[in-house]
Design a protein that fits this description.
Blueprint lengths: L2 H18 L47 E7 L6 H9 L7 E7 L6 H12 L4 E6 L9 H13 L8 E5 L3 E3 L3 H11 L2 E9 L5 H17 L2 H4 L13 E5 H6 L12 H10 L3 E12 L6 H9 L2 H4 L4 H24 L3 H23 L10 H20 L9 E2 L7 E2 L20
Parallel strand pairs: 1-2, 1-4, 2-3, 6-8
Antiparallel strand pairs: 4-7, 5-8, 6-7, 9-10
């Protein structure tokens, strides 16, 4: 058996497993408009008050619908925060909804824009804007802001039943929260998360954004995430409806305070408390623009090396695996006329077929699937770049903070890294 034959066989085997043994992740079957399946009880949410004003084991006071507080960590989000607040205020949710925005050191007027949007919307949802405290050692910036928002929400005698953790760049259709709560209550989920539809307008976005979602689905097949019998757990940080009591039992946000990839870390914590659900959505839309390829590169390198637990050995294995998966099949199909070439051609066929559905989801031509081998190479380079940035002390860079493992989140000005204190942070998976 020649080496070329073995490479072709391995490449084909990889794609057979990915396409047929990963819960058909590439079809994108798990979506927020799929049927809600009752868990151990018939019927939908009650339409009238529950006995004593309580709701299904929760402490809500609004008829049959639990109370919800949306928590928004925001740092320099002036471009889209008004639209985000307006979309939250426009929710048709029948129960009590409050909104807490934690302004994490913004210097672009984010807080004032949020207040103005809330006042202009005429919504009944109350907005509270908190000025974030100085970043505490051992915390990432986003989670420190989320912690403050949750602490505020829990003050008083009637804390919310659910916490809606949402990013400051995600806008929602009016029925989003109602659907989230309906699924959580009816299917008895402690976490319901939507993979927000990322912006896909510029050339760079059309080229690389569908692949970002595709790779995430490959790493965390949504069917397995949603299966209570599977250990696979994940979430999409842009939109997460969390059962407050389940979060408390799991150790609270404090239990993941140093997680660079906090959404998947939270998904794992909460799956120990009950079933979770993750799906694609057209109702949650990201407003953040990635007009240049470098914008997407920076998004990827922020957490790619954390996916590998900051391990050089895993990095080397990943590079080799990516070459076998995305490069070898194409080269064999083009230049080998023996069995290895057939294996390569079959692998390429599976590769392209699996990449087409996410193109359609983003309203692009399925023919764009032919770009996946090249995209795989680019993402491999970005993964190596992520490791290099970490080694240079700039890992996990976001809004002027380097937050990767062993580096206290530090302020960075004019491209110069500032040495920080060690915190022993641990990485968690991300696409």
């Amino acid at each position: 058996m020649s080496l070329i034959f073995l490479i072709g066989l391995i490449s084909l085997a990889v794609w057979v497993v990915l396409v047929f043994a990963r819960s058909l992740f590439w079809l994108g079957l798990e979506r927020d408009d799929m049927a809600v399946v009752p868990a151990n009880r018939p019927g939908d949410l009650p339409s009238g008050p529950a006995p004593g004003g309580m709701t299904g084991g929760h402490g809500g006071l609004e008829g049959g619908w639990p109370s919800v507080t949306a928590i928004i960590p925001a740092r320099n989000e002036a471009d889209g925060i008004a639209q985000v607040i307006a979309s939250l205020g426009a929710q048709d949710y029948p129960g009590a909804l409050n909104i807490v925005l934690v302004d994490d050191g913004s210097d672009d007027g984010t807080a004032d824009l949020a207040r103005h949007a809330a006042e202009s919307s005429g919504s009944t949802a109350a907005l509270t804007v908190l000025t974030g405290a100085e970043l505490a050692p051992g915390w990432t910036g986003k989670l420190w802001a989320v912690r403050q928002g949750i602490a505020h929400a829990q003050e008083g005698d009637f804390p919310p039943d659910y916490l809606w953790l949402t990013d400051a760049d995600i806008a929602y259709a009016p029925d989003t929260l109602t659907r989230l709560v309906t699924r959580a209550q009816t299917e008895k989920r402690v976490l319901v998360s939507l993979m927000a539809k990322l912006r896909c307008q510029s050339w760079a976005e059309r080229a690389f954004i569908p692949a970002f979602i595709y790779f995430f689905q490959m790493l965390y097949p949504f069917g397995r995430v949603n299966d209570s019998g599977s250990t696979v757990a994940a979430a999409a940080g842009g939109c997460m409806l969390v059962d407050r009591q389940a979060l408390a039992r799991a150790g609270g946000i404090d239990s993941i305070r140093d997680a660079l990839i906090d959404d998947c870390a939270l998904g794992r914590r909460l799956k120990t408390q009950g079933s979770i659900w993750l799906g694609l959505s057209d109702r949650a839309v990201s407003l953040r623009a990635y007009d240049k390829v470098d914008d997407i590169r920076r998004m990827v390198i922020r957490s790619a090396y954390a996916q590998l637990n900051y391990s050089p050995a895993l990095l080397a294995g990943t590079v080799l695996g990516m070459l076998l998966t995305y490069v070898a099949p194409v080269l064999l199909a083009l230049f080998n006329r023996e069995a290895a070439g057939i294996f390569g051609a079959l692998a390429v066929g599976l590769m392209l077929a699996s990449f087409a559905p996410i193109q359609v989801f983003y309203r692009l031509s399925p023919m764009r699937a032919v770009t996946l081998p090249l995209i795989g190479i680019v993402y491999t380079v970005w993964t190596v770049d992520s490791a290099v940035q970490h080694w240079m002390g700039r890992g996990g860079m976001w809004k002027g903070r380097a937050q990767a493992q062993h580096v206290h989140p530090v302020q960075v000005s004019q491209g110069q890294a500032v040495t920080g204190q060690q915190t022993g942070q641990n990485g968690t998976p991300t696409p």
